[in-house]
Model the fold of this input.
Amino acid sequence: MRKLGETKLKLKSTVVAIFIASEENSSIQGVGVDALVKDGLLKKLKQGPLFWIDTADKQPCIGTGGLIPWKLHVTGKLFHSGLPHKAINPLELAMEALKEIQLRFYKDFPPHPREQVYGFATPSTMKPTQWSWINQIPAECRISGDVRLTPFYNITDVIKKLQEYVDDINANIEKLDTRGPVSKYVLPDEQLRGGFDTANSGVACDLNSRGFQVLCKATGEVVGHVKPYSIIGSLPLIRELQDEGYDVQIAGYGVCQHHLPIRRLIFHDYMRADTTEVY
Done:
């Protein structure tokens, strides 16, 4: 904004800058961009591109992934490790059940042809990220993980399918592979349960929009090259903006090094960002 004030450019368009709170809409809801949309304060912005500045590496980000956190609660039968034939080992059961769930997931949601167009480094994935259990051959264990979904699949369809996998495994538990001569998963009180938390959908930006073309041209002029990319990480809220009819385009000027406890930036990159955004 200062750059616009200093250069006093005669623009053919109106520039509106919005500084939002609660960027990921997680800790405090109803005070960020979702509240602005709900109150109709952004309606006029549908007449032009909306640039969401929240990624990294100075290049247009043209796609993001959806996120489905999940938890699989596996119930077995507690018993001494020296008498495994009297136990149902939930760790083994969890490994076999998760293997079956993953095989079904990758069959139903294979790499999508449009992922290559958008440059996604990976297709949709479903994998565990945390594991916890209690002592002996435990009575139960819990596995947590996530689904990272490219924007070409519907979040609701995936959640429905995952629940179908779990329900079918529950109904046919004896058909799972076992591990050794005394490993088994069938006892009267045995159950396998799955549950799913809240989810965010991914975004595929409109590559034919004027907003995308302008962003690419400005990036090329200032940075020296243009290499749009997509990430399987999720950016909450912007899919909702896209669904409301906004031409959402994404860029950012931080340093991309996973999820650091403290986000990093290079001041020189932000000075170039100033130039890019007013080009």
